[in-house]
Every structure is written in C-alpha cells, then in structure tokens.
C-alpha cells in the first residue's frame, strides 16, 4: 500500500492556551474525497488551517507526499500545490471574476491559464457570464463557485474545501457538490472536505471522519458513517 498523499499524525493545535485539536490522526490517499463532519466549533476548520500552517501544530506532524510540512512557511506549502477554498469564500471583492481567476493561476506561473480558464467556465458556466463583473457583486453561490475555481486554477494536487455549502440554496449546493464529484471522477482530483452538511458530504466522500471537540471520534467509508445510528441522530435527523 502506497503512503497517503496527506497524513496528519497526532496533531495538537492551540489558540493561545485553548486546545483546539487533540491528537488528531487523518489520512487522505491520492484520488480520494475525504470529509470531516462535526458540529459548529468542533475543530474542523482548525484542522484544515493547521495543514496549511496557520495555526501551526504544537505537537504531531503533517505530511504531504512523504514530506514533513509541519514547519514549512505557508507560501512553500502552497507551492506544493495544496489549494484551499476557505470558509466564507474570501474572494477578492473589488477584482473581477477574471482577475480573481488570474490570481489563482499565479502560483502556476500562468503556464496553462487560457486552457484552465476554459475548463473553469465549462465547470461553472455562470462564471463565464460574469467574467467582467466584480467578485463582490456576485451572489453567494456564484462567489462560492469563484472561490473553488480560483483554487483549481493553481492545478492543485490536493483541494481543501472549507464549508462549501454554507448559507447556499439547496439547488446551488447540489451544483457545487456535483462539480466536486465530476472533478474527482474525471480527473482523479484529491479532495479534503470540511462540511456541516453531513448528508451531502458523506454521500459524496469515499471516507469520512467525525470530529467532536477537537477529537476524531469515528471514521469509516461515507456509506458506513451514513448508516450509523449515532451519526444519524447527531447530524442527520430532522434534516433528512
């Protein structure tokens, strides 16, 4: 068995004196979609940010493609072709859609800009219609599409998505999860997904982890976790 593309080993992360992650172990293999589900404030976003080096893991290691990246500067982590679409989208609101996508391609030195731009416009046709529009004037769903497309412009080996469905209408959520599925199925893109919408996330993911108060309490295939009564009771009842 080859080693995982991303491995988080025994990671403890703190904000000042407050411990946010406790001995977290997570693995993501090449070509997988892996999701972390959990309630608000469980530490899911902190885990994703720890992979990116902000905040740093105080103990434990983060490995990417066999290399220890725990202490690497953030810009060097980005150069390894790990791309993040953060919670709250964080696009450049004063820049046009086209300029936002240019920013995403800068890490790749614009080597494949025209080709990749065409791919993004095929994946999210709405962005093509809005190419000359400022990012800040887009709807929430369009901004989320732009955030994902901007991350994809860097040709990532690992795409990290933090709460891509947050605050979006069900139809848009379906579109975005459909796009993630297609990218994985057609291009073998490896995806690390943090998501409060457990139902969508576990349906999409090959494997999942459940996080409670900074601790991984359960793991399994997406299907296994969807079927577990404690997961259904905590994250799925009422909604589905």
From TrEMBL:
<feature type="domain" description="ABC transporter">
    <location>
        <begin position="6"/>
        <end position="238"/>
    </location>
</feature>
<dbReference type="InterPro" id="IPR027417">
    <property type="entry name" value="P-loop_NTPase"/>
</dbReference>
<dbReference type="Pfam" id="PF00005">
    <property type="entry name" value="ABC_tran"/>
</dbReference>
<keyword id="KW-0813">Transport</keyword>
<keyword id="KW-0029">Amino-acid transport</keyword>
<protein>
    <submittedName>
        <fullName>Branched-chain amino acid transport system ATP-binding protein</fullName>
    </submittedName>
</protein>
<keyword id="KW-0067">ATP-binding</keyword>
<dbReference type="InterPro" id="IPR052156">
    <property type="entry name" value="BCAA_Transport_ATP-bd_LivF"/>
</dbReference>
<dbReference type="InterPro" id="IPR017871">
    <property type="entry name" value="ABC_transporter-like_CS"/>
</dbReference>
<dbReference type="InterPro" id="IPR003593">
    <property type="entry name" value="AAA+_ATPase"/>
</dbReference>
<dbReference type="GO" id="GO:0005524">
    <property type="term" value="F:ATP binding"/>
</dbReference>
<dbReference type="InterPro" id="IPR030660">
    <property type="entry name" value="ABC_branched_ATPase_LivF/BraG"/>
</dbReference>
<keyword id="KW-0547">Nucleotide-binding</keyword>
<comment type="similarity">
    <text>Belongs to the ABC transporter superfamily.</text>
</comment>
<dbReference type="InterPro" id="IPR003439">
    <property type="entry name" value="ABC_transporter-like_ATP-bd"/>
</dbReference>
């Amino acid at each position: 068995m080859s080693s995982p593309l991303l491995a988080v080993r025994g990671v403890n992360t703190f904000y000042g004196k407050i411990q946010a992650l406790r001995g977290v172990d997570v693995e993501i293999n090449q070509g997988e979609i892996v999701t972390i589900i959990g309630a608000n404030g469980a530490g899911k976003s902190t885990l994703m940010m720890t992979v990116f080096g902000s905040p740093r893991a105080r103990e434990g290691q983060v490995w990417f493609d066999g290399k220890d990246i725990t202490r690497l500067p953030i810009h060097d982590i980005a150069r390894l072709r790990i791309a993040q679409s953060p919670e709250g989208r964080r696009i450049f609101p004063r820049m046009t859609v086209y300029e936002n996508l240019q920013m995403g391609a800068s890490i790749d030195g614009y080597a494949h800009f025209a080709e990749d731009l065409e791919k993004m416009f095929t994946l999210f046709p709405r962005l093509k219609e809005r190419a000359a529009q400022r990012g800040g004037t887009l709807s929430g769903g369009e901004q989320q599409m732009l955030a994902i497309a901007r991350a994809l412009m860097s040709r990532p080996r690992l795409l990290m998505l933090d709460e891509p469905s947050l605050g979006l209408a069900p139809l848009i959520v379906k579109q975005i999860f459909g796009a993630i599925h297609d990218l994985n199925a057609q291009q073998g893109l490896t995806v690390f997904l943090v998501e409060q919408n457990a139902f969508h996330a576990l349906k999409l993911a090959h494997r999942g982890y459940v996080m409670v108060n900074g601790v991984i309490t359960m793991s399994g295939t997406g299907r296994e976790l969807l079927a577990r009564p404690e997961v259904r009771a905590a994250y799925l009842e009422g909604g589905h």
